[in-house]
Amino acid sequence: MEVTPPAVARLAGERVDHRFKGLPPDAEGYTFGQLAAERRPLFTGGFTTPLLTLDSAALDHNLARLAGFTARHGLAFAPHGKTSMAPQLFARQLALGAWGITAATPAQVRVCRAFGVPRVFLANEVVDATALAWLSAELAADPGFRVIVYVDSVRGVELMDAALTHPLDVVVELGVAGGRTGVRDQATADQVADAVAASRHLRLTGVAGYEGGIPDRTPQTVRAWLDRLVGLARRFDAAGRFAGADEIVVSAGGSAWFDVVAEAFAAADGFSLPSLKLLRSGAYVTHDDGHYRQVTPYHHRLPEDGLRSALLLWAQVVSRPEPGRAYLNAGKRDLPHDLDLPLPRLIRSPDSPTPAPPPASPSPPSPTSTPSSPSPPPPPSTSATGSPSASPTPAPPSTNGRRSPWSTRTTR
Ligand SMILES: Cc1ncc(COP(=O)(O)O)c(C=O)c1O
User: Fold this and answer.
1) Which of 280, 338, 339 to mutate to test the pocket of ligand 1 (most atoms within 8 A of CB)?
2) Domain containing 86: what range?
3) Measured in angstroms, how far is the CA atom of residue 172 from the centroid of ligand 1?
4) Distances in whole angstroms, Cα of residue 354 to Cα of each of 351, 378, 403
């Protein structure tokens, strides 16, 4: 199952221009395909700072790691697309066996559709009548397209049903008190399922939720919540609530607890229909050196070689106005982050053009650093990517060029 190759391939025909930060000014007017084919060296190829890069070796590793994990554990995989929103990565995830792509909004589903993603798991409630009318039209036009959407209230079901003109598969979302969306109790779950059964267009096909929304997450609380989720599917099944469905979907899982999800879902068998146990990890694909390095199962519970941080931002020190202070030419729009600050990983200077880890500092570089500071990444084998949609094409190592003023690399 692959994303329509022509739609993804067409991206390589887009033109480099002012919309793409960091790409060489002298490549203006090139197609991305032409620029990528030149394999320009990172430091001497005319790129400007700040420049966000994607480490192709780390990316390959992470893609393979989760594809292997899901295959070994009998899980279907719908990687969350919001992490990258990169159709080239969707195509690679699908080519590695993913069932489909997870989306958070109808706008993200549109991107998936534009690039031929055959199945989308819309892990959110949708009551936007225009978006639901669009979804109906997409489903009517393409019998091969499958989309599954969350529901968590009777009112939401009513609003959806009023706006839809085509049958739509839904799953009841299970939440937790103090958490995000999702029904809080069995009685509400039953009311929502009743409303779905009474609707004209909705068809109940399973249950889902996100353990990342549990307020106090430990292996025990996450497992207990996952067992509740599986239990909800069992009760619905026993009550004949999936009568109109082809399969029973049970879905959970981000990038912090997928090992516990796999354990809990291993016991999710014996339904009246085939089951689709769907994992939705997204952040795994680029990983990071902050939050996800701390919470990944590979850090705590899995003995295997873990995920690798793949997003790298090269910036320059542009001012040292007083001792102990240095300012980079990069800000929040170049280094978007929601949990932890970026970490300095490599420094390159005119005296030392081969990038090297920063000298050990007595004060930790970020509030979340731990005594076991991250091991330095391998020498750069990065590819320069423009923003927002340049192709993540691999480029060769590039430490051999003439001296460049570039000096600091940070990663998320
Ligand atoms: C509903 C839902 N599913 C899956 C994910 C993916 O989790 P992660 O980013 O940890 O991979 C998220 C992330 O926020 C989410 O909100």
Assistant:
1) 280
2) 57-300
3) 17
4) 9, 12, 10
